[in-house]
Automatic annotation (TrEMBL):
Statement: the UniProt record of this protein carries the keyword Membrane: yes
Annotated TM spans: 12-38, 50-71, 112-137, 157-183
Protein name: Energy-coupled thiamine transporter ThiT
Top-rank lineage group of the source organism: Bacteria
Classification via InterPro entries: Thia_Transptr_ThiT
Organism: Granulicatella seriolae
Coiled-coil segments: none
Swiss-Prot/TrEMBL keywords: Membrane, Transmembrane, Transmembrane helix
Length: 201
């Protein structure tokens, strides 16, 4: 195992551990629970890319599902509401290359655009999966499922807005105040010359 892979694996492990810890932190805004666990997963995806982001989300989703569903395990709900929903957070990794390069080149507005778009896309996909999981596991009749989906949408859209909004705020502040935090050592998104320049700054 080379040093770069070891670093990515170590960073992914830290992100998963922090996400597990944050999943136990109760934060509510206007009575809506905020999912802080997505923050380390998004951070990892923006730094390391799509595959590390997806795999980390998958592992966290499995761990989270086993913790939440301990003693009352619903495999369909586990698969959708936890494993798939958190795996999709890794989709933010699509924007990793542009995020790292714009952060390196100090193009703050472009970095903000990347982290904002990535956060919105990943959190939206995850939220839709949560909604489907809540609806599809509630009733087996199609008409009732459709009603449940609409009810869940109306009850949880503000939760998604607040969670995504908080995540965007954090990453925007990071892009402006500490953009180098978005650039991992020996990243494949920068050339050796650029990395050497980064180390000399």
């Amino acid at each position: 195992m080379n040093s770069k892979l070891i670093r990515i694996t170590g960073e992914a492990a830290i992100a998963i551990i922090v996400s597990v810890a944050l999943s136990f932190v109760p934060l509510q805004i206007m009575g809506h629970a905020i999912d802080l666990a997505i923050l380390p997963l998004l951070f990892l995806a923006f730094r390391q890319g799509l595959l590390p982001g997806l795999l980390s989300g998958l592992i966290f989703g499995l761990v989270n599902g086993l913790i939440v569903g301990a003693g009352n395990l619903d495999w369909l709900r586990l698969g959708l509401d936890s494993i798939l929903a958190y795996t999709l957070i890794g989709v933010a990794g699509i924007f990793a290359r542009n995020t790292v390069r714009t952060a390196f080149n100090r193009r703050k507005s472009s970095t903000v655009l990347n982290v904002t778009t990535g956060t919105l896309l990943a959190s939206l996909l995850s939220w839709v999966t949560h909604v489907l999981a809540s609806s599809l596991t509630a009733n087996t009749f199609l008409s009732q499922q459709q009603a449940d989906i609409m009810s869940t949408l109306s009850n949880t859209w503000l939760t998604w807005c607040l969670t995504a909004g908080l995540a965007i705020l954090i990453f925007v502040l990071l892009a402006y105040l500490l953009p180098t935090a978005l650039i991992p050592k020996q990243t494949r998104f920068l050339t050796r010359r650029e990395q050497s320049h980064l180390l000399n700054d």
